[in-house]
Write a structure and sequence with these properties.
Blueprint lengths: L11 H7 L4 H18 L6 E6 L6 H17 L4 E5 L28 H19 L4 E3 L15 E4 L7 H7 L6 E4 L6 H12 L3 E4 L2 E4 L7 E4 L2 E2 L5 E2 L4 H14 L6 E4 L11 H15 L1 H6 E7 L25 H13 L2
Parallel strand pairs: 1-2, 1-12, 3-4, 4-5, 5-8, 8-11, 11-12
Antiparallel strand pairs: 6-7, 9-10
Length: 342
């Protein structure tokens, strides 16, 4: 059947002109970006916490969550820098199902990518305006990063994308931290190859232009667990895993070695409440080893207002329509418990 071209999309500068980030908040982002850099470079002892819904499907609930998060973040700001997880693209293993707000600003209506593009930029900006926290998103579609590069403070590259050449090359030109997740196979060397490629200068075609990048020295490892050939989950957050990756990092000569650990996905076997126990184990491992403490810079946690998940078409406010998440009460308590262990 081939391709059917529906409509041309505006250029990133046109979208930014319609939905600009106010100057004072651009300055706020600049300060937060510098603080995040300081953490990943090892100059600051603060801990990163990237926390929020599996998929940001409803602006009102996401902004409400971010405001709650900001209140908790203020109480631990001497030890933790909180980055709200506002993931607007949802990877689908089979390519079917809800693909996130970019595709469907209303999950119950047909896809509209232009409306989705505007909706996700507006949501990111509203999160910043209401919470004064600058968000993270997943770089599922590298070509779209230019529409959001002035509103994001962190980008994750997923397990299925880290081996892709374009993701690696675009990451090399991004001027905020990029977390490269280990592949679903769990192979650390593949993840480190991705980081090596992203930290190096690259030349390639991007958005119909030949471009050159200088390399991103803040590209780092994200451990999210693995799946074996039998479909069984294999966690990789344990003490021994962290020591092994530390040894591999040391021999790699990569810049700014850092690990962020995803407490959900294959690490939890998608049992969302396990995130509480996993986070505590990781904090305990940091307390046992200066090597691990210096390398493990933060956690990713899937959390929303209501615990668990629901199907598209159900309407419990602040409850995930994709993977199950911790509810707010458990999340807030966990934030304070993590702070106490720092």
């Amino acid at each position: 059947m081939g391709f059917t071209f529906i409509k041309a999309l505006p250029e990133p500068d046109e979208v930014k002109a319609v939905l600009p980030l106010p100057r004072e908040y651009a300055e706020l982002k600049k300060k937060r970006d510098a603080e995040i850099r300081s953490i990943l470079e090892g100059k600051s002892r603060k801990f990163l916490l990237i926390i929020g819904p599996c998929s940001a499907d409803n602006e009102a609930a996401v902004v409400d969550y971010a405001v709650r998060l900001a209140r908790a973040a203020e109480k631990v700001s001497d030890r933790i820098l909180v980055i709200p997880r506002v993931y607007t693209n949802k990877p689908r293993t089979t390519g079917m199902g809800y693909k996130g707000m970019l595709h469907q600003p209303d999950p119950e209506k047909k896809p509209d990518l232009l409306a989705g593009l505007m909706a996700i930029r507006k949501m990111h900006i509203d999160v910043i305006l209401e919470s004064e926290l600058t968000p993270a998103d997943e770089m599922l579609y590298p070509e779209n990063h230019s529409f959001m590069d002035d509103v994001l403070s962190y980008v994750a590259v997923g397990a299925s994308s880290g081996e892709d050449q374009l993701h690696r090359m675009v990451a090399s030109g991004v001027d905020i931290p990029v977390g490269m997740k280990n592949p679903t196979s769990g192979d650390f060397s593949v993840m480190l190859n991705s980081i090596t490629a992203a930290q190096a200068p690259q030349m390639f075609i991007y958005r119909n232009s030949e471009i050159e990048t200088g390399g991103n020295d803040l590209t780092h490892a994200v451990l999210r667990g693995a799946v074996n050939k039998h479909g069984q989950y294999i966690p990789n957050y344990h003490y021994e895993d962290l020591i092994r990756l530390s040894d591999m990092y040391q021999s790699s000569k990569l810049k700014n070695p850092a690990i962020i650990i995803d407490t959900n996905h294959s690490n939890s076997g998608k049992h969302y409440k396990e995130q509480i126990r996993i986070a505590k184990e990781i904090m305990h491992s940091r307390s046992l080893s200066g090597e691990i403490e210096g390398l493990v810079k933060g956690l990713m946690i899937e959390s929303y207002i209501e615990p668990g998940s629901q199907k598209v078409g159900e309407h419990t406010y602040g409850k995930s329509i994709t993977d199950p998440c911790l509810g707010w009460e458990d999340s807030e308590r966990l934030i304070y418990e993590i702070a106490e262990q720092l």
